[in-house]
Structure formats: C-alpha cells, structure tokens
Write a structure and sequence with these properties.
single chain, 290 residues, alpha/beta, pyruvate-formate lyase- activating enzyme, seven-stranded parallel beta sheet, two-stranded antiparallel ribbon, 8 helices
Length: 290
C-alpha cells in the first residue's frame, strides 16, 4: 500500500499490474511508462504485462485507520485478461474491510456492469469510469446502470468538451488535463493539452477555450448536485499550471471514511498551501463534505 501523488485519494493499492490501451486517453499512459521503465526489476519484473501480486491482498487489513483507497492505479480490474477468480478475491477483500472506501476506476464499463449484475457490489466499492471526451459520453449511460452507492467519472485526461452532460445518477466527477514531457511537442499539445507552453514566458499557460471545457463540467455538477474535483491543468508534470479554477481549488468528494472532513493526502496539503485560492465557497478551503 503506497502513499500517492494522486490527490483525490489517500493510498494506492495494486494487487495486480498491467493493462492494454483501448482508447485515445490511454495513448500516453503514465502506468505503462513507469512499469516499462522498470521492466526486469523486482518492482515490475514483467513490465506492463499482467502481473498478479497475491501478497498485496492482505495490505488493506494492515491499515490502522479507515482509508480512502484507489484500487489498481497500475491496472484495470475489469481488463479481460484478469482471471475472474482473482477479480472476485479482490472484491472479497473490499467486502471484508468495510472501514475503508475503495475507488475502482475502469475504461471498460460494460465489464463492470456485467460483473455488478453477477455479484452485488459492497457498499464501500465506488464504481468509476473514465470518460475522457464527449465522444465517450455513452459510458455514462452504462455506469448509471451499475448498482453502487457511489458512481463516479474521471474526465482525465480531458480531451474535448462534454457539452451539456446529463449527470443524473452520478455522484462525483474528477477533471484533469494531460501531463507529460510529450506536451512540449506543439502538435501533440494542440491535440491534447488544456495548456500550452509559452516559450517567451518560459512557462505553461491555460488555453481559455479549453478552460471552458472544465468550467462547463463544473457548472453541470453544481446544477445537478454532483460533487466536483479538479485535479490539475497539466503540462510537463501534473501541476505545472496549477489547479485553480475561477479563483479557487475544487476538492469536493462524496464522502470520506471515518469522521474526517478532508482528504488525508500530504501532497494535496502541499498544493493547497501554495495555491492560496480566493473566493472559496462558504469560506472553506477544503469544501469536501457538505
């Protein structure tokens, strides 16, 4: 179980690793880059090929405090190469540790829906689907059919406008821009970035037209009573352009384990200290649970 720079969670848990690219959002996959850079090492002996890590199944039981856990930051639980028996063992662990909340995220909503109809998802299983562009909004229709207490959407990397999305039945939306050194390529950045690199200023700047993509999603969340979390604008590294939208940061979340009102993530606290947002709603810096 690892500390993490993924600021919308508290720990990452990877009882397996490996995946395959299936949509445009996967093109510059951070997990693949990391795993392949360490291929042949004890950490990733098989690179980004499927690697089952049974010894990690006991990790959640060792946590002393109720924790928000991103399950499989280095894989996809609903990848068809994952043995179904092992998938059930992972969900067994989630069910047996109700003090924790598990954020499960997939790009394979059809497989998630099928599984949820075969086995009732535990209350602490958050069903999440990546929707990186308006062309994939049909994934929302599939997610809505999943019987889960929390259904959420990760719009990261956000590659196009959502227009005016119907978020009925969705409890949480995360937005974020692409990051990585590949964005120094102007053509790639034009296709994929919420930011651009200004070589005269020597810094990343927001693209006004694409800021509106995030603002539209934020406004839809507010109008439809959905929690909203803006993770990053992106650049050569995730927070190269910060994460303030309209004068403040957005850290809303449906609920947290235990009695806490803030995500317990050290990196998030560092970013918040630097951001100094203004015009925070209700005067709260962490507007997480209302």
């Amino acid at each position: 179980m690892n500390e993490t720079g993924i600021i919308w969670t508290e720990k990452t848990w990877n009882p397996m690793s490996g995946c395959e690219k299936i949509t445009e959002g996967c093109k510059f996959c951070y997990a693949l880059t990391l795993a392949e850079s360490k291929r042949g090492t004890p950490a990733f002996p098989n690179g980004f090929d499927l690697t089952i890590r049974e010894h990690k199944l006991r990790e959640p039981f060792r946590l002393q405090d109720p924790t928000l856990i991103f399950a499989n930051s280095m894989s996809d639980l609903f990848w068809d190469k994952v043995p179904d028996t092992y998938r059930h063992r992972i969900v067994d662990v989630i069910e047996q540790t109700p003090q924790h909340e598990y954020q499960v995220l997939t790009k394979r909503p059809e497989a998630l829906l099928k599984f949820s109809r075969e086995r009732k998802l535990p209350p602490n299983f958050w069903a999440g689907v990546t929707v990186e562009s308006g062309r994939l909004l049909e994934r929302l229709d599939i997610l809505r059919q999943v019987d889960a207490e929390v259904r959420y959407v990760s719009a990261e990397p956000l590659l196009s406008s959502f227009g005016d999305p119907d978020l009925s039945g969705i409890h949480w939306v995360i937005t974020g821009g692409e990051s990585g050194s590949h964005l120094y390529d102007a053509a790639v950045c034009e296709r994929r970035g919420l930011v651009m690199y200004d070589r005269s200023l020597k810094k990343w700047v927001l693209r006004d037209d694409r800021v509106q993509w995030v603002r539209d999603i934020r406004d839809a969340c507010i109008a439809q009573g959905v929690k909203f979390f803006h993770k990053q604008w992106g650049g050569n590294y995730p927070e190269a352009s910060g994460r303030i939208l309209d004068g403040r940061t957005w850290n809303e979340i449906p609920r947290l384990p235990g009695q806490r009102r803030e995500i317990n993530n050290g990196y998030l606290r560092q970013l918040e200290a630097k951001a100094k947002p203004t015009n925070t709603r209700d005067g709260l810096l962490f507007d997480s649970v209302q």
